[in-house]
Amino acid sequence: MRAAGLLRPTLTLLAGGALAQVLPLLLGPWLTRLYTPAQFGQYHLFAAVAANLAVVACARYEFALPIATDAREAALLRALGLRVLAAVTVLSLAAALAWWAAAGARWALWLPAAVGVLGALSLASLLATRAQRFRALALARVLQHGGGALLQALAGVWQAGVHGLIAAPIAAAGAAVAALGLPRPDAGGTGAAIGPGELRAVARRHREFPLLNTPHAFMGALQDTLTMALIAATIGAGGAGMWGVAMRYLKAPAALIGGALSQALYPQLAAQGPGVTAGARALVRRAMATLALLAAPLVLALWLWAPPAFAWVFGEPWREAGDLAQALALYIGVHFVASPLAVVTMAWQAQRWALKLALAGQAAFIGALLLGLASGRLAAAGWAVSIATTAYFGLYFWKLARWPLAAPADTGGR
After folding, report:
1. Which 3 state secondary structure label does DSSP give 139?
2. How many other β-carbons are positioned within 10 Å of the β-carbon of residue 175?
């Protein structure tokens, strides 16, 4: 696939993503004055748990949509995803009640709403990706991220506290689902109803997604959940708030550029089939090189100016978040490059390898975090995480760049 074929959809999604990030970035300094670090800590802990469940709410069957062979198979996959989502949402209600009973946190009762709407958004986004509805995807990102920040600011003015911080992004994600639409999962353009036998067959055919990609995604999200829980337990809710706000800003470039690139890259790699062609590998190498060039000045800027910049933008009480940002600069740089590449191993059907490597990386991250937190300082934890993850992602990039090509017989060659 030529790079030009990737450029147009990437730019469309990038434009939508840029607009989606404007409001959160502009409203952030106001939000840090409307809410305390402790309130942000509670919110980010909730958001991490909700994302942990939502990322696997459809058992990752939605990620098989871009490689579905026809409209009927796509209809079966979305029907299957909706059924799994309904079950996970009900289970999340039980989890919310248990959390409330154990910790006395009433805001935990928002959990099923968050899981349900985020799971539906993932399914709707992959349906739109399959159809290459890139303008609709861009609009959905604006509604979700920009709308969520705006609603959080309004909730802060009304002194809604943690409930406002939580409810606002849920409402915004619901608006994004409405913008994308969630097509009826019955006909798929064939005029035939969906039976349980067909659902079981398509579930078996794409079983690698729940068996391999689901634990991969869940463990990746669990890393964020454990991070927030460990910081809150060792340093306090205020420290968790510092980490959450710093990450929200530091990962914004990856969410903007990486999200746009991955949504455009996945269908183009999937269209070339399971075998890795020279063109597919070259496309991935170009993507890595471009992302690395963009990441370098970001890392340098954080090293030079993060502490005074955070204090000036968010207020002096948030200077510690700037020290943390400086320490996390290397991690942010390599994460910026790696973020959009998660779809590569799905397209290349290398999810088993990706899962094994990811588990090792997550263990290194949590181990480094614990080592740094033992000092009682967030910045020390940041430096430890940067060192560990730079080594891990370096191995990941090297493996992708040198991925073996499919044999000629596997690609139709003679």
Report:
1. helix
2. 19
DSSP 55-94: TTTTTTGGGGGGG-SSHHHHHHHHHHHHHHHHHHHHHHHH
CA distance 243 to 237: 10
What amino acid is encoded at 40 in this protein? F
9 class by beta-carbon count within 10 Å (0-12 exposed, 13-18 middle, 19+ buried):
buried
Collapse the DSSP code of 132 into the 3-class scheme (helix H, G, I; strand E, B; otherwise coil) and give the result.
coil
Tell whether 15 is covered by a domain. yes
One-letter amino acid identity for 30? W
How far are the Cα atoms of 20, 62, 74, 140, 171 from residue 129, in angstroms, in the given order?
18, 10, 12, 12, 22
Q: pLDDT tens, 140-192?
A: 989 999 999 999 999 999 999 999 999 999 999 999 999 998 755 444 445 56
The DSSP letter of residue 410 is: G
- Reduced to 3 states (helix: H, G, I; strand: E, B; else coil), residue 131 is coil
- Asked if pLDDT for residue 302 goes beyond 90, the answer is yes
Query: Which of 42, 26, 39 is closest to 149 using CA atoms?
Result: 26
> What's the domain count of the chain?
1
Handedness of CA 341, 343, 348, 354 (dihedral sign): positive
Q: How far apart are CA 169 and CA 143, in angstroms?
A: 10
- Stated length of the chain: 414
Is there a domain that residue 8 lies in?
yes
Cα 33 from Cα 28, distance rounded (Å): 9
Rounded Cα–Cα distance for residues 62 and 203 (Å): 11
Asked if residue 410 belongs to a domain, the reply is no
For residues 57 and 84, the answer to whether their CB atoms sit within 8 Å is yes
End-to-end CA distance of the chain: 21
Residue 414, domain member (yes or no): no
Range of the domain at 188: 3-404
Model confidence at 264, in pLDDT bands (50, 70, 90)?
A: confident
Closest CA to 166 of 298, 42, 285, 311: 42
Phi, psi for residue 267 in degrees, rounded to 5:
-65, -30
390 torsion bin: left (phi>0), alpha (psi -120 to 50), beta (else): alpha
